[in-house]
Amino acid sequence: MLAVEEINRNTKLLPNMTLGFHIFNAYHKDERTLESSVVWLSGQGPTIPNYNCERQGKSIVVIEGATSELTISMGSLLELYRIPQVTYGLFDPFLSDPVQFPSVYQMAPRDTSLPLAMVRLMVHFKWTWVGLVASDDPRSEKFLRDLQEEMVRNDVCVAFIQKIFTGLTEDNHYIYYFLNKLFRSKARVIVIDGNTDTLLTLRVREVAHALVYRMWITSSHWDIAKKPGYVYFDNFHGALIFADQTSKIPGFKHFLKTIHPAKDPENIFLQSFWNSAFGCTSKVGRVDGAVCSPNASLDTLGLSYLDMTMSHQSYTVYNAVYAIAWALHEMFLVRSEMESNRNGNNSGAYPWKLHSFLKNIQFNNSAGNHVVLDEKKKSVANYDILNYVAFGNDTEVLVKVGEFISEAPLGQAFIIQEKAIVWPRTWGESERERKGIDRYVGRETETEIDKEKSLLSHTKSLESQISNSSSLDQCMKCPEDQYPNTEKIQCLPKRVIFLTYEETLGMALASIAASFSLLTALVLWVFVKHKDTPIVKANNRDLSYILLFSLSLCFLCSLFFIGRPSAINCLLRQTTFGVMFTVAISSILAKTITVVLAFRATRPSSRSRRWVGSRTPISLVVFCTLIQVMLCAIWLFLSPPFPDADTYSDPEHIILECNEGSLIAFYLVLGYIALLALGSFTVAFLARNLPDTFNEAKFITFSMLVFCSVWLSFLPTYQSTKGKMMVAVEVFSILSSSAGLLGCIFIPKCYVILLQPQKNTNKFLRNNPIS
């Protein structure tokens, strides 16, 4: 109201135009929020979507949002019409996405320095056992993560983490569970943050024993002063509040003194607030209260009803109205004279036209502060530290006792006046002298409520901390080879684990590897025994021998991954695997090329005849293998794999594993094999339909498809697993891909050799090609 009145008196800002506003209810349910939005879009007539029954005073911008949820709910409808949404709530990084929320403009400064400011306060007073309470929404989730990280860096322990779930704040069982949790907790310093809507119910509960006798650290976003009069004033007495720094708006206090429902009878919100605040009624003859005095003034109300100083949220709304006015000013400057003066109203001011001006708007408000809507240019918020003091006569005040300037030089950012602080009722002198009251560190008494596991979560960095004394200033961290017991008072040794032959998984993988290796050797014996038959001689008999021998070793090399890692074991496992698979895949590539050469050799006067039957395919295998050997040699020389112990992935175990040394070298080895496999697949696919009697390109194509599928699945799975399961994933990939090559290429040939020998003759093959 103040901003609109000032703008309308300013003849230079919006000349020949009167700025007005409508007020609509913001509900706590999505369907009611959307209903209110449709009413606003349709006008005062029937709520018909896509029709506007309002002929005058059409709104072109909405100022909204104490919470991000409200902005998101309204945005699902308003974005259809590209109506600008200017929010006055807390800055939410989620709303900064220009793709999801292209029409949302956040007025509040970034509050990324709030966790640092709060931890500076904890460190100053040596508060090291602190409880955390926050509402269940994405912004509070990020705040908790940032706060915990900052606490860990400064050796401050988290006593408990409690989330207030939206929709459960009216559930009495949930409320008493939460209050019982606070009452049983030994943490006497509690940080509470969140949106007012979620925490409203907790704020007004008459359960003083759970709330008093604590040092509450909060932000001005959760206004502890605003509450019904029947609530104990002592609940949050002594709390320290981080309030966003704002400048005094000239004329604001005078404006509040002049407000009266009689001067603005159409403002039903003001009339309702007035009746509630002064305990009176505006209608004569009503028996439910005295008639309101015509001389009543807002400056006589207590803090629980109205703070005469402008809050940060009100300051943001004030700037939001001015931002819209300046955007309109810029828009009308660039329009033609005919459009800008059409009927003296804003009928030509379409909502979507304001976006280009709102994005770039910059101005100085009446307090002299620079206001900018571009989020890239927004400054980080600074904070006043306010002390909430409740007196015995049910009056209360907020006293500034310090400040935090985020961009101040080192050592000057945090300022606190200890002597000016009024502490909670039970804060003893001896505790104040040592600047801390939470020396007791121990395990929190557990409640017997089933929801606790889902409502409490501790970060891994805090799980490794213990305290075995009530006089410690800070938690102790267990050594890397130990972990804390459930009572958090003793460190226990971690058990060493790795993929062994004795466990079921290791035994199964080793058995499969040995079985497939023997099966491959058996196939090789069959081929050697029938070496003079046409089907064995097809596509280069020597290459078949090399491929079978390398596949047998591929199965066996997986055994290097099972058992306790050692220096030799770590050096051999990946290099052996890389070289053996290179021999196998290069043999397949050579066999595929042989198919192509054999087909070309059937043409008259073809030059390819001299390559058929020569040692060229063998030379190709040797050449490809030498490249892989050189890569492995460089890997072993520069950064060889070595035995390592993972003490972080599992809080109760030490996982023995092989550190690859250089991940780049590891993926180079895999990449080279993938390159050969891709070449083999491409050539085989192109040669699959060649009319050659001995064409096995179809089998090779299918085998390479299986091979590539296995290793494409391996990469994301390998990255997402830890410890011995990561080893098992690689072993399984080696066995399955090797089995795929063996089965797809050689099982059909063995079937013919052993079960249908009549087909393994030159005469039959000429008349009935295998392919």
TrEMBL record:
Domain of life: Eukaryota
Keywords assigned by UniProt, alphabetized: Cell membrane, G-protein coupled receptor, Glycoprotein, Membrane, Receptor, Signal, Transducer, Transmembrane, Transmembrane helix
Main location, first listed in the record: membrane
Occurrences of domain G-protein coupled receptors family 3 profile (ranges): 505-769
InterPro entries found in the cross-reference section: ANF_lig-bd_rcpt, ATPase_P-typ_TM_dom_sf, GPCR_3, GPCR_3_9-Cys_sf, GPCR_3_C, GPCR_3_Ca_sens_rcpt-rel, GPCR_3_CS, GPCR_3_vmron_rcpt_2
Gene Ontology CC: plasma membrane
Membrane topology: Multi-pass membrane protein
Localization in the cell: Cell membrane
Entry GO MF terms: G protein-coupled receptor activity
Record flagged with keyword Cell membrane: yes
Any Pfam family the entry gives: ANF_receptor
Spans traversing the lipid bilayer: 505-528, 543-563, 575-599, 620-638, 664-687, 699-719, 731-754
PANTHER family, sorted: CALCIUM-SENSING RECEPTOR-RELATED, VOMERONASAL 2, RECEPTOR 118-RELATED
Protein's name in the database: Vomeronasal 2 receptor 570
Naturally occurring in which organism (per UniProt): Monodelphis domestica (Gray short-tailed opossum)
Phylogenetic lineage: Eukaryota, Metazoa, Chordata, Craniata, Vertebrata
Annotated gene: VN2R568
